[in-house]
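From the shared-data thread, chain only:
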Amino acid sequence: MALSVYLVVGLGAAVAGFVQGLSGFAFGLVALSFWAWVIDPQLAAVLAVAGSLTGQVVAAVTVRRGFDRARLAPFLLGGLAGIPLGVMLLPHLNADWFKLVLGTLLVVWCPAMLLTKDLPRITTGGRLADAAVGLSGGLLGGLGGFTGTLPTLWCVLRGYERDVQRTIIQNFNLAMLAVTMLVYLGSGLVTRSALPMLAVVLPAMLIPVLLGTRVYVGLSETAFRRVVLGLLTVSGVTLLAAALPRVL
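Structure, as tokens:
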């Protein structure tokens, strides 16, 4: 591959690493806003999962927020059921329509929440609803490492405080991404051709992840909510920008 491709991949990994360290999620969404222009979707999915997993391991060590087993369990059980579905769909996925649907959801919903002073809180559904959201996270994780997108949005709707949300998303992402990477390895999706790109992505993201975790510590509840919803909105815009020209 051309040197310019490696530079774009490295830049995407660095920016995505900082965002993940700051917010606890969104590595795949941010990275793919760079990578979608230069590499194929299947390779991008492998790189996104590997980078996301590495960032979660670093964040788990540097930003420790406990482990609430009872609250986390439904998300994990749902997510474990969703991962194999996502991996099975990946080779048959129309990447442009996938980006269009997910991008539209984020662009419509997140700004509305961002502009609302008193966010609606969802108190119904209980653990079954949490498990369904976990299933969606696992499914999106199998498709390309987007494990935290919908669970993060759900935690905001639940009205969880900053550290509670970080605890759920950080531990959920870590577990889902580890399982997804094992499935990728077992199914042969991680090929030798991916190794040079992995050698670029992993070093490029490490320092930015650490910087992001340092910034997170100083954020207030309100600032953290705005950062999360703002990042989700920007991610949606970039997905639409990549998908609309191809779909139309």
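The CA atoms of residues 102 and 236 lie 7 Å apart.
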